[in-house]
Amino acid sequence: MSDPQQSATRARTRQAIIDAAIGLLAQNRAAPLGEIATAAGVGRTTLHRYFADRAELLAAIDVEGDLRLEQAITRARLDEGTGAEALLRLCQEYFELGDLLSLMFGEQQATADASCFGPDEAGPAAGGSEPAGLSTPAFEAAVRRGHHDGSIDPGLPAYWLESILWAHLYTAWSFTTQGNLTRYEVLRLTLRTLDGAIAGRR
């Protein structure tokens, strides 16, 4: 029978490695596993006991990303309040996932570059393209509700608003890395700008 305390310790160590990998790879997708192990507070050998190679670690990050996105959508309570309020809550929740979604932006752009330019050719700079597959029925329902309650411009379809949301978030994450503004100020400006961009015409 497994020791519950040992299992909990293993789970914490595994999570620490994943968290460290997300933070480092968001800044540098080529960050070596040794640096990730150091950031997680474990040795390289320990890291390999949990993840045999880089591919296994990246696969675990993908699973972690899906989980965190689902949790963010749940916390945003997209079925409550006006449509605009729901989208602003979602924006705030996604803002808190900065490292994770910055990494997803970069991975998607890298895939697109490879498919368009080939593995030996240089593609455009990373950023600017939203992660694939993040639109949900709940998001679309919130947009429709906003069209009906007047809080969202009915001339703005859900697919367009999704791109607007990612564009605002990408700008916000860029500003947080520059250090000229506090995270609070960046979030305040992001929500104010998004609110103005989606508002129903008066």
From TrEMBL:
Keyword tags: DNA-binding, Transcription, Transcription regulation
PROSITE patterns: HTH_TETR_2 (PS50977)
Annotated HTH tetR-type domain residues: 11-69
Name of a matching Pfam family: TetR_N
SUPFAM superfamilies cross-referenced by the UniProt entry: Homeodomain-like
InterPro entries per UniProt: Homeodomain-like_sf, HTH-type_TetR-like_transc_reg, HTH_TetR
Molecular-function GO terms, alphabetical: DNA-binding transcription factor activity; transcription cis-regulatory region binding
Lineage: superkingdom: Bacteria
DNA-binding region ranges: 32-51
Protein name: HTH tetR-type domain-containing protein
